[in-house]
Amino acid sequence: MEKEKIDKRDHILDVAERVFAEHGFDGSSTRLISGEAGVNMAMLNYYFGSKEGLLVALFERRTSAFRSLIQNIGKNENISAWQKITEYVDAYINRVFNSNNCFQKVIHQEMIIRRTGELADRINDMIMQNVLELRKILHEGIEHGEFKSDIDTEMVVATVFGIKSQLINAPHVSSQMMGYDTQDPAHIDEKLKPRIKDYLKKLLKAYLLIENDNAK
Protein backbone atom coordinates (compact mmCIF):
# COMPACT_ATOMS: atom_id res chain seq x y z
CA MET A 1 0.00 0.00 0.00
CA GLU A 2 1.36 3.39 -0.98
CA LYS A 3 2.52 5.65 1.85
CA GLU A 4 -0.13 8.27 1.08
CA LYS A 5 -2.87 5.63 1.31
CA ILE A 6 -1.42 4.27 4.56
CA ASP A 7 -1.28 7.76 6.05
CA LYS A 8 -4.88 8.48 5.01
CA ARG A 9 -6.06 5.14 6.39
CA ASP A 10 -4.28 5.75 9.70
CA HIS A 11 -5.74 9.26 9.90
CA ILE A 12 -9.27 7.88 9.52
CA LEU A 13 -8.56 5.27 12.21
CA ASP A 14 -7.22 7.94 14.56
CA VAL A 15 -10.41 9.95 14.14
CA ALA A 16 -12.61 6.87 14.48
CA GLU A 17 -10.85 5.91 17.70
CA ARG A 18 -11.60 9.31 19.21
CA VAL A 19 -15.20 9.35 17.98
CA PHE A 20 -15.87 5.82 19.29
CA ALA A 21 -14.35 6.78 22.64
CA GLU A 22 -16.52 9.91 22.89
CA HIS A 23 -19.83 8.60 21.55
CA GLY A 24 -19.53 4.82 21.82
CA PHE A 25 -19.67 2.51 18.83
CA ASP A 26 -23.47 2.48 18.67
CA GLY A 27 -23.67 6.26 19.07
CA SER A 28 -21.22 6.91 16.23
CA SER A 29 -21.75 6.87 12.50
CA THR A 30 -19.52 6.61 9.46
CA ARG A 31 -20.87 9.97 8.32
CA LEU A 32 -19.75 11.59 11.57
CA ILE A 33 -16.33 9.96 11.30
CA SER A 34 -15.87 10.91 7.66
CA GLY A 35 -16.83 14.49 8.48
CA GLU A 36 -14.42 14.67 11.42
CA ALA A 37 -11.66 13.11 9.30
CA GLY A 38 -12.29 15.45 6.37
CA VAL A 39 -12.80 12.62 3.88
CA ASN A 40 -15.79 11.63 1.80
CA MET A 41 -17.91 8.57 2.48
CA ALA A 42 -16.65 6.84 -0.65
CA MET A 43 -13.08 6.92 0.65
CA LEU A 44 -14.08 5.64 4.08
CA ASN A 45 -16.07 2.80 2.54
CA TYR A 46 -13.19 2.00 0.18
CA TYR A 47 -10.81 1.43 3.10
CA PHE A 48 -13.14 -0.14 5.66
CA GLY A 49 -16.47 -1.06 4.07
CA SER A 50 -18.60 -0.27 7.12
CA LYS A 51 -18.59 0.98 10.70
CA GLU A 52 -17.98 -2.58 11.84
CA GLY A 53 -15.01 -2.78 9.48
CA LEU A 54 -13.64 0.41 11.04
CA LEU A 55 -13.86 -1.05 14.55
CA VAL A 56 -12.18 -4.30 13.52
CA ALA A 57 -9.39 -2.40 11.74
CA LEU A 58 -8.90 -0.23 14.83
CA PHE A 59 -8.55 -3.28 17.09
CA GLU A 60 -6.26 -4.98 14.60
CA ARG A 61 -3.95 -1.98 14.48
CA ARG A 62 -3.69 -1.54 18.24
CA THR A 63 -3.57 -5.19 19.31
CA SER A 64 -1.19 -6.35 16.57
CA ALA A 65 1.34 -3.64 17.42
CA PHE A 66 1.39 -4.72 21.06
CA ARG A 67 1.39 -8.41 20.11
CA SER A 68 4.54 -7.96 18.04
CA LEU A 69 6.23 -6.32 21.01
CA ILE A 70 5.33 -9.00 23.54
CA GLN A 71 6.06 -11.84 21.13
CA ASN A 72 9.60 -10.54 20.84
CA ILE A 73 9.82 -10.58 24.64
CA GLY A 74 8.54 -14.15 24.79
CA LYS A 75 10.94 -15.39 22.10
CA ASN A 76 14.03 -13.91 23.77
CA GLU A 77 16.06 -16.96 24.81
CA ASN A 78 18.68 -14.86 26.60
CA ILE A 79 16.51 -13.88 29.55
CA SER A 80 14.64 -15.83 32.21
CA ALA A 81 10.87 -16.26 32.41
CA TRP A 82 10.82 -13.82 35.32
CA GLN A 83 12.70 -11.20 33.30
CA LYS A 84 10.15 -11.71 30.53
CA ILE A 85 7.36 -11.05 33.03
CA THR A 86 8.98 -7.80 34.15
CA GLU A 87 9.43 -6.68 30.55
CA TYR A 88 5.82 -7.64 29.78
CA VAL A 89 4.62 -5.56 32.74
CA ASP A 90 6.69 -2.57 31.59
CA ALA A 91 5.42 -2.88 28.01
CA TYR A 92 1.79 -3.31 29.06
CA ILE A 93 1.73 -0.41 31.53
CA ASN A 94 3.52 1.90 29.09
CA ARG A 95 1.01 0.94 26.42
CA VAL A 96 -2.13 1.28 28.50
CA PHE A 97 -1.41 4.22 30.77
CA ASN A 98 -0.84 7.29 28.63
CA SER A 99 -2.39 10.69 28.16
CA ASN A 100 -4.24 9.51 25.04
CA ASN A 101 -6.13 6.43 26.19
CA CYS A 102 -9.04 6.62 23.74
CA PHE A 103 -8.49 3.03 22.67
CA GLN A 104 -8.74 1.80 26.27
CA LYS A 105 -12.09 3.57 26.54
CA VAL A 106 -13.24 1.82 23.36
CA ILE A 107 -12.16 -1.56 24.77
CA HIS A 108 -13.99 -0.85 28.02
CA GLN A 109 -17.16 0.11 26.18
CA GLU A 110 -17.07 -3.05 24.11
CA MET A 111 -16.48 -5.24 27.16
CA ILE A 112 -19.36 -3.86 29.22
CA ILE A 113 -21.79 -4.00 26.30
CA ARG A 114 -21.13 -7.73 26.02
CA ARG A 115 -21.78 -7.60 22.31
CA THR A 116 -22.47 -10.92 20.57
CA GLY A 117 -22.04 -12.12 17.01
CA GLU A 118 -19.20 -12.16 14.51
CA LEU A 119 -17.97 -8.65 15.39
CA ALA A 120 -17.67 -9.52 19.07
CA ASP A 121 -15.96 -12.82 18.27
CA ARG A 122 -13.32 -11.14 16.11
CA ILE A 123 -12.58 -8.52 18.77
CA ASN A 124 -12.37 -11.12 21.54
CA ASP A 125 -10.03 -13.26 19.44
CA MET A 126 -7.64 -10.34 18.94
CA ILE A 127 -7.60 -9.53 22.66
CA MET A 128 -7.16 -13.18 23.62
CA GLN A 129 -4.10 -13.52 21.40
CA ASN A 130 -2.31 -10.99 23.61
CA VAL A 131 -3.58 -12.71 26.75
CA LEU A 132 -2.17 -16.01 25.49
CA GLU A 133 1.28 -14.48 25.06
CA LEU A 134 1.38 -13.78 28.81
CA ARG A 135 0.16 -17.28 29.58
CA LYS A 136 2.94 -18.73 27.42
CA ILE A 137 5.55 -16.97 29.56
CA LEU A 138 3.91 -18.21 32.75
CA HIS A 139 3.84 -21.80 31.51
CA GLU A 140 7.47 -21.50 30.40
CA GLY A 141 8.43 -20.46 33.92
CA ILE A 142 6.60 -23.47 35.36
CA GLU A 143 8.15 -25.91 32.88
CA HIS A 144 11.67 -24.62 33.58
CA GLY A 145 11.20 -24.89 37.33
CA GLU A 146 11.45 -21.15 37.81
CA PHE A 147 7.83 -20.58 38.84
CA LYS A 148 5.78 -22.54 41.35
CA SER A 149 3.88 -25.43 39.77
CA ASP A 150 0.56 -24.58 41.42
CA ILE A 151 0.21 -20.95 40.29
CA ASP A 152 -3.18 -19.92 38.94
CA THR A 153 -2.21 -18.57 35.52
CA GLU A 154 -5.70 -17.27 34.74
CA MET A 155 -5.76 -15.22 37.96
CA VAL A 156 -2.30 -13.82 37.20
CA VAL A 157 -3.59 -12.65 33.82
CA ALA A 158 -6.69 -11.18 35.46
CA THR A 159 -4.49 -9.34 37.97
CA VAL A 160 -2.25 -7.78 35.31
CA PHE A 161 -5.10 -6.78 33.01
CA GLY A 162 -7.56 -5.98 35.78
CA ILE A 163 -5.55 -3.15 37.32
CA LYS A 164 -6.27 -1.12 34.19
CA SER A 165 -10.01 -1.49 34.66
CA GLN A 166 -9.91 0.10 38.10
CA LEU A 167 -7.49 2.93 37.42
CA ILE A 168 -8.52 3.93 33.90
CA ASN A 169 -12.21 3.15 33.75
CA ALA A 170 -13.02 4.76 37.11
CA PRO A 171 -10.83 7.89 36.98
CA HIS A 172 -12.74 9.91 39.58
CA VAL A 173 -12.55 7.15 42.16
CA SER A 174 -8.93 6.41 41.26
CA SER A 175 -7.91 10.05 41.57
CA GLN A 176 -9.48 10.36 45.00
CA MET A 177 -7.91 7.09 46.10
CA MET A 178 -4.43 7.96 44.81
CA GLY A 179 -4.51 11.57 45.96
CA TYR A 180 -3.81 13.09 42.54
CA ASP A 181 -5.41 13.39 39.13
CA THR A 182 -4.76 10.03 37.47
CA GLN A 183 -5.64 11.51 34.07
CA ASP A 184 -3.05 14.27 34.25
CA PRO A 185 -0.21 13.41 31.78
CA ALA A 186 2.51 14.53 34.20
CA HIS A 187 1.08 12.46 37.04
CA ILE A 188 0.70 9.45 34.75
CA ASP A 189 4.37 9.47 33.76
CA GLU A 190 5.92 10.62 37.04
CA LYS A 191 3.72 8.91 39.62
CA LEU A 192 1.17 6.42 38.32
CA LYS A 193 3.14 4.26 35.89
CA PRO A 194 6.22 3.79 38.12
CA ARG A 195 3.97 2.93 41.06
CA ILE A 196 1.93 0.36 39.13
CA LYS A 197 5.03 -1.29 37.68
CA ASP A 198 6.69 -1.53 41.08
CA TYR A 199 3.55 -2.92 42.70
CA LEU A 200 2.88 -5.54 40.04
CA LYS A 201 6.48 -6.74 39.96
CA LYS A 202 6.66 -7.11 43.73
CA LEU A 203 3.29 -8.84 43.84
CA LEU A 204 4.07 -11.25 41.00
CA LYS A 205 7.57 -12.00 42.24
CA ALA A 206 6.23 -13.08 45.61
CA TYR A 207 3.55 -15.22 44.00
CA LEU A 208 5.45 -16.75 41.08
CA LEU A 209 9.04 -17.44 42.05
CA ILE A 210 9.89 -20.65 43.87
CA GLU A 211 12.58 -18.85 45.84
CA ASN A 212 9.82 -16.81 47.50
CA ASP A 213 7.80 -19.85 48.59
CA ASN A 214 7.79 -19.52 52.38
CA ALA A 215 6.71 -23.14 52.72
CA LYS A 216 10.17 -24.26 51.65
Overall number of domains: 2
Annotation, overall tally of beta strands: 0
CATH class wording of the largest domain: Mainly Alpha
User: Radius of gyration over alpha carbons?
Assistant: 19 Å
- Low-pLDDT runs of 5+ residues are none
* First-last Cα distance: 58 Å
H and E string: HHHHHHHHHH
Shape: globular
The main sheet comes to: none
By DSSP (H or I, 4+ residues per run), the number of helices equals 10
**What name does CATH use for the topology of the largest domain?**
Tetracycline Repressor, domain 2
Residues in helix, %? over 70%
The name of the CATH superfamily of the largest domain reads: Tetracycline Repressor, domain 2
Short description:
The protein has 216 residues and is an all-alpha fold. Helices cover 76% and strands 0% of the residues. It has 2 domains: 1-49, Arc Repressor Mutant, subunit A (Orthogonal Bundle); 56-212, Orthogonal Bundle (Tetracycline Repressor, domain 2), CATH 1.10.357.10.
Provide keyphrases for this structure.
216 residues; mainly alpha; Arc Repressor Mutant, subunit A; Tetracycline Repressor, domain 2; 2 domains; 10 helices; globular; AcrR family transcriptional regulator; HTH_TetR; transcription regulation
Structural account:
This protein has 216 residues and is mainly alpha-helical. It folds into 2 domains: 1-49, Arc Repressor Mutant, subunit A (Orthogonal Bundle), CATH 1.10.10; 56-212, Orthogonal Bundle (Tetracycline Repressor, domain 2), CATH 1.10.357. Helices cover 76% and strands 0% of the residues. The protein contains 10 helices and no strands. The chain has helices spanning 3-23, 30-37, 41-48, 51-75, 81-96, 102-113, 118-143, 153-169, 171-178, 185-208. The model has no long low-confidence stretch (mean pLDDT 87).
